[in-house]
Inverse folding.
C-alpha cells in the first residue's frame, strides 16, 4: 500500500481521484511547519503540495521513504530540488494544467482594451454616461503571439475563433507546428510591425529579459496594444511607460510585473493601461485541473514509475552512472553548441555513437543531447526525464544509431541537427576516457575544450582574418584563452573556435562580422 501525504489544500476532484485508487492511502494534514512535517514525512511515499509547504533539505533528510514530491501548479520555489535530487526523490509539477485559463485571460485583456471596459466601468460609477468611449472590433485585426508554447498555441486558436489574423514568432518551434495549427510564422521584427495586439507567452530567460524594449516598441503601430500574462521582466517597464505616455502605442494590459505588487510603478499613473494582480491561473477550473493532474501523475509514477513533468532526475545506479555519465555530459554539451549554431528551429536530431561510446546504452546519451538542445529555450526546466516529451512538443524528432567500430577516436559521439533543409554535425570525443573535446563541426576537423564562452566563425581561408578578429577583441579588453582553426577543401573556407574570458555584446559581434572575410559568427556560452 503506497501512502501519500497532502500538506496543502487540493481541489476535491483531485482528492476523489486518489481515494478511488485501492492500493493508495492518502492522509491530509495542512498548515505544517518544518519540524511538524519532519516528524511525519518518513511514513510516506509521496508528498503533494501547492505553494505553502516548504520542502527543505531538513525535510528531505527525514523523508526516508519518499519517492515523489508533486506540485499542483508550475512554480517550485518552495522545494529544494538539488536536495531532492541528491536523495533520489522525483519532483514534478503541472505546467500545462493552467494553460487554458492563462490564454483566456490574455484574450479577456484583449477584449477589455479594445472596448475600453475599465474606463466605461469607472465612468458609470462616477455618475457619468460617457458614450464617447469608442472602441474597435477585433475581427480581421492582427493578433501577434510572441512565444508559441502550449499557452501561445491555445491563444492562437482563440484568436482564430474571433476571426483574427494570427501570426506568431518562436525561434525554437519547428515550422510544421505552426503549419499544423494554421498559424503564420514570422520573424520578430515583422511580428512587431504587423501587430494590432501583441500578446506575450514566452519564458523569462536571459535572452528574453526585456525582449520588448524601446527599440521594439518604436517598431509598432501607434494603434497597437500589448498584453503580458506570461512573466514580469519580458517588457522594459520604463520603456513601456514612455511609449504609452507619448502615444507611441495605444494601450497595454499587464497581469505580471518586474516587481510584484507594482506599488511604486509609474505605470499606475496612466489611463491607457489595465492591471490585474497575477490572475493567470486563478479560475476554479484551473484549480481543479492542477489538483486532478498532479493526482494522476502521482498515481502513474507510484504504479508504473513513469515520471510525467519531472523536474529532476531519478537516481542512477553507481554502475550505470559510471558507464554513462561522461558520455551523457559530452552529448549535452554538443547539444548546446548545436542549438547555438543552428540558424533555424531544429526539426530532427540524430545521435550516433562509435567505439567505446557504443558499448553503453544510446538512449541516455541521445536524451542528454536533447537536454543541451532545449535547455534555456523552453519555459519548462529541461532534464533527462522530460527532454523527449518537450522535444516532441517543439516538433523535434530523435533518431539514434550505434557503431562499435571507432572513427579516428576510441570514443566518439556525433550529434546532427536538421533544420530548413540543412544539417549540421557536431562531433565530440573523450580523450583518455574522461576529457571532453569538440573534435568536429561539419567537415571541419577542430579540437576544442568545450567550456566557458566560445566564438565560432566561418570565414574565408586567407591571411589576416584571425589577426583582425583578435584586434577587435583586444580593443574591447576581451582576453582570448584558447583558439583553434580548422580548414577544409570545400570553397577554401576555414572555421575558428575562440575561447574568450567573458561574453561579448552585440556591438563587438557586429565589428567581427564586419571583417570582410568573415561569413558568419556565433557566440555560445556553456
Amino acid at each position: 500500500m503506497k501512502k501519500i501525504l497532502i500538506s496543502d489544500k487540493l481541489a476535491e476532484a483531485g482528492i476523489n481521484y486518489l481515494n478511488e485508487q485501492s492500493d493508495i492511502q492518502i492522509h491530509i494534514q495542512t498548515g505544517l511547519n518544518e519540524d511538524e512535517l519532519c516528524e511525519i514525512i518518513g511514513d510516506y511515499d509521496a508528498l503533494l503540495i501547492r505553494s505553502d509547504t516548504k520542502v527543505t533539505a531538513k525535510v528531505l533528510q527525514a523523508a526516508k521513504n519518499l519517492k515523489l514530491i508533486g506540485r499542483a501548479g508550475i512554480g517550485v520555489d518552495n522545494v529544494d530540488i538539488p536536495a531532492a535530487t541528491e536523495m533520489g526523490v522525483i519532483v514534478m509539477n503541472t505546467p500545462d494544467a493552467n494553460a487554458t485559463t492563462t490564454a483566456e485571460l490574455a484574450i479577456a485583456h484583449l477584449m477589455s482594451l479594445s472596448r475600453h471596459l475599465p474606463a466605461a466601468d469607472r465612468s458609470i460609477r462616477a455618475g457619468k454616461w460617457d458614450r464617447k468611449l469608442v472602441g474597435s472590433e477585433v475581427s480581421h485585426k492582427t493578433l501577434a503571439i510572441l512565444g508559441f508554447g502550449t499557452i501561445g498555441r491555445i491563444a492562437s486558436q482563440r484568436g482564430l475563433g474571433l476571426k483574427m489574423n494570427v501570426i506568431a514568432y518562436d525561434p525554437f518551434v519547428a515550422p510544421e507546428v505552426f503549419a499544423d495549427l494554421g498559424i503564420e510564422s514570422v520573424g520578430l521584427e515583422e511580428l512587431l510591425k504587423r501587430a494590432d495586439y501583441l500578446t506575450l507567452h514566452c519564458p523569462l530567460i536571459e535572452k528574453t529579459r526585456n525582449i520588448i524594449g524601446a527599440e521594439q516598441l518604436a517598431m509598432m503601430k501607434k494603434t497597437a496594444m500589448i498584453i503580458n500574462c506570461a512573466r514580469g521582466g519580458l517588457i522594459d517597464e520604463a520603456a513601456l511607460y514612455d511609449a504609452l505616455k507619448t502615444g507611441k502605442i495605444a494601450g497595454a494590459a499587464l497581469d505580471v510585473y518586474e516587481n510584484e505588487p507594482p506599488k511604486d510603478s509609474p505605470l499606475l499613473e496612466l489611463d491607457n493601461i489595465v492591471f490585474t494582480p497575477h490572475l493567470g491561473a486563478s479560475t476554479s477550473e484551473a484549480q481543479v485541473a492542477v489538483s486532478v493532474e498532479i493526482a494522476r501523475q502521482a498515481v502513474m509514477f507510484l504504479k508504473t514509475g513513469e515520471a510525467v513533468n519531472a523536474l529532476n532526475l531519478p537516481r542512477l545506479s553507481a554502475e550505470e552512472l559510471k558507464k554513462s555519465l561522461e558520455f551523457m555530459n559530452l552529448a549535452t554539451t554538443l547539444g548546446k553548441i548545436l542549438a547555438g549554431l543552428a540558424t533555424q528551429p531544429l526539426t530532427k536530431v540524430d545521435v550516433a555513437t562509435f567505439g567505446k561510446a557504443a558499448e553503453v546504452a544510446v538512449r541516455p546519451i541521445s536524451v542528454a543531447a536533447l537536454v543541451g538542445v532545449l535547455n534555456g529555450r523552453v519555459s519548462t526546466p529541461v532534464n533527462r526525464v522530460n527532454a523527449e516529451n518537450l522535444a516532441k512538443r517543439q516538433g523535434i524528432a530523435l533518431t539514434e544509431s550505434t557503431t562499435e567500430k571507432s572513427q579516428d577516436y576510441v570514443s566518439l559521439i556525433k550529434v546532427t541537427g536538421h533544420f530548413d533543409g540543412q544539417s549540421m554535425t557536431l562531433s565530440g570525443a573523450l580523450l583518455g576516457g574522461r576529457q571532453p573535446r569538440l573534435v568536429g563541426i561539419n567537415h571541419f576537423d577542430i579540437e576544442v575544450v568545450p567550456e566557458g564562452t566560445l566564438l565560432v566563425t566561418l570565414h574565408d581561408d586567407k591571411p589576416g582574418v584571425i589577426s583582425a578578429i583578435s584586434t577587435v577583441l583586444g580593443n574591447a579588453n576581451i582576453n582570448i584563452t584558447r583558439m583553434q582553426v580548422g580548414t577544409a577543401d570545400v570553397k577554401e573556407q576555414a572555421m575558428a573556435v575562440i575561447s574568450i574570458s567573458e561574453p561579448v555584446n552585440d556591438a563587438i559581434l557586429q565589428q567581427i562580422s564586419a571583417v570582410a572575410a568573415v561569413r558568419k559568427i556565433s557566440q555560445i556560452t556553456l
Observations:
- DSSP finds 17 helices and 22 strands in the chain.
- The CA atoms of residues 328 and 415 lie 12 Å apart.
- Residues 318-341 form the longest helix (24 residues).
- The radius of gyration is 26 Å.
